[in-house]
Design brief:
This protein is 36% helix and 26% strand. It is built from two helices and five strands; from the N terminus they run ααβββββ. The longest helix has 54 residues, at 2-55. It is elongated. A five-stranded antiparallel beta sheet has the order 1-2-3-4-5. The protein has one domain (2-174). By secondary structure, it is of the alpha+beta class.
């Protein structure tokens, strides 16, 4: 009877150890997928800043950044140019979205197994303190969502940037 009890306890310990190992592997896989999705969304944020820096001074999105060569959908390039420059005023903080109902992404990218859509919104501008009237800081919100259709995993990154207008390619990420 004692041997049977010891065998039962050893079996129970063995099954629980196997269950815990499987659970740990499952959690590690889920964490890896979240990190991959976040990295994909962060790459969209970086590309969005590149689009802003290359578009703000000329007033239009350069042809090299428009699809099929670039990440900006051709149908949305004119609207994005207006959004980046905040003109007309109705384009400031435009309610368009990158994903969901009525989506019209400003940036579309494929990163590994993720489809990444991004939205760039001009928030406001203000004159830089201690500078002439032409030197302004432009503030933008960049909202990027990465989705993996095979697994259903999604990650979203939202960032606010302060970009110096006129002859500078400086954009600084601001805390939300």
């Amino acid at each position: 009877m004692t041997v049977m009890m010891i065998m039962l306890m050893a079996g129970t310990l063995g099954v629980s150890a196997l269950t815990m190992t499987g659970l740990e592997n499952s959690m590690a896989g889920a964490i890896r997928m979240v990190e991959e999705g976040t990295d994909a969304a962060e790459s969209c944020v970086g590309m969005s800043v590149n689009v802003i820096q290359n578009s703000v001074d000329p007033g239009v999105v350069p042809a090299t950044l428009i699809a099929p060569a670039g990440p900006v959908p051709a149908a949305n390039a004119a609207i994005l140019s207006q959004e980046i420059n905040g003109a007309p005023v109705s384009m400031r903080n435009n309610p368009d979205v990158a994903v969901g109902a009525g989506n019209a992404p400003n940036i579309t990218m494929a990163v590994n197994n993720y489809l990444v859509n991004g939205d760039i919104d001009f928030l406001y501008s203000k004159q830089r303190a201690g500078s002439d009237e032409n030197t302004k800081d432009f503030f933008y919100r960049v909202d990027c969502t990465a989705a993996n259709a095979a697994t259903g995993a999604t990650s979203r990154v939202i960032a606010v940037f302060d970009c110096l207008h006129l002859g500078s390619d400086t954009c600084q990420r601001r805390a939300l």
